[in-house]
Write a structure and sequence with these properties.
By secondary structure, the chain is an alpha/beta fold. 42% of the residues lie in helices and 18% in strands. The protein has one domain: Rossmann fold (3-Layer(aba) Sandwich). Helix 1 crosses helix 12 (237-253) and helix 6 (107-114) packs parallel to helix 7 (132-140). It binds adenosine-5'-diphosphate and magnesium ion.
């Protein structure tokens, strides 16, 4: 049975897509069968996996409209070693088109249920909003991975997401929980960051992943080569920390 995780945070630019792509590639490297679902109309996770978002025969948009299955929509990230259900600007229209449809928040879940036997991990890269698209992700998932920067307003920004997750848990998906908070773009030389990191551990205890992703320019360069950072420069600190995180996730799902 596949374990399904949303990578979510309603803030933009916090490292969701970088985490989704590199965790997918890291899990593939440690022998897991992985599907990455791009739920952001920007299509960055698609492009960052080496899949051209402008040339997708089918995308997550058609999946949400129930026109195709996951098996029909998926393409292979040859470079990453995992499958991708891609996204592009078309997906921005799905929000409006789903408004008056039945079970509109359960479309992705239904599609993923049918592909359950094909994967060990399904990762869903969410857009930076608490929209119908994100809701489809949260309804499908066993848990949420929250990447965050250790900045002054980080804890404040978290409360909206935590409330949304509680509501989805209460009304739509009783399995949903926060799997963990992942500290990303971390620089321990910055005093404020280590202070916020300590606060996070006090507040959230073992919900804070042990792995920490440093700020690393190789992770930022990799997408322009259509590669996950883990593949682009495996020796870099950023790549190694994402592979460590992949191992931590494999260990953690055994305790779920
Ligand atoms: P989101 O999906 O939350 O909008 P991204 O993953 O696209 O965030 O990251 C935002 C920007 O920060 C991108 O340019 C990305 O390359 C860069 N970035 C993400 N993680 C790191 C990191 N650990 N070190 C350096 N740059 C990073
Ligand atoms: Mg993104």
């Amino acid at each position: 049975m596949a374990k399904i995780f949303c990578i979510a945070n309603q803030k933009g630019g916090v490292g969701k897509t970088t985490t989704a792509v590199n965790l997918a590639a890291g899990l593939a490297q440690v022998g897991q069968r992985v599907l990455l679902v791009d739920l952001d109309p920007q299509g960055n996770a698609t492009m960052g996996s080496g899949v051209d978002k402008r040339a997708l025969p089918n995308s997550v948009y058609e999946v949400l409209l129930e026109a195709v299955s996951i098996r029909e929509a998926k393409t292979r990230s040859e470079v990453g070693g995992y499958d991708v259900v891609g996204a592009n600007r078309e997906l921005a229209g799905a929000e409006v088109e789903l408004v008056d449809q039945e079970r509109r928040e359960r479309r992705l879940k239904a599609a993923l249920d049918a592909a359950d036997a094909d994967y060990d991990f399904v990762l869903i890269d969410c857009p930076p909003s608490l929209s119908m698209l994100t809701l489809n992700g949260l309804v499908s998932a066993h848990g949420v991975i929250v990447p965050m920067q250790c900045e002054y307003f980080a804890l404040e920004g978290l409360s909206d997401l935590v409330n949304t997750i509680k509501q989805v848990h209460a009304n739509l998906n009783a399995e949903l929980k926060i799997i963990g908070l992942l500290r990303v773009m971390y620089d321990p030389r910055i005093t404020l960051q280590s202070q916020v990191s300590e606060q996070l551990k006090q507040h959230f205890g073992d919900k804070v992943f042990h792995s920490v992703i440093p700020r690393n320019v190789r992770l930022a360069e990799a997408p322009s080569y259509g590669q996950p950072g883990v593949v682009f420069d495996p020796a870099s600190k950023g790549a190694q920390s994402y592979v460590d995180f992949a191992r931590e996730m494999v260990a953690r799902i055994e305790t779920l």
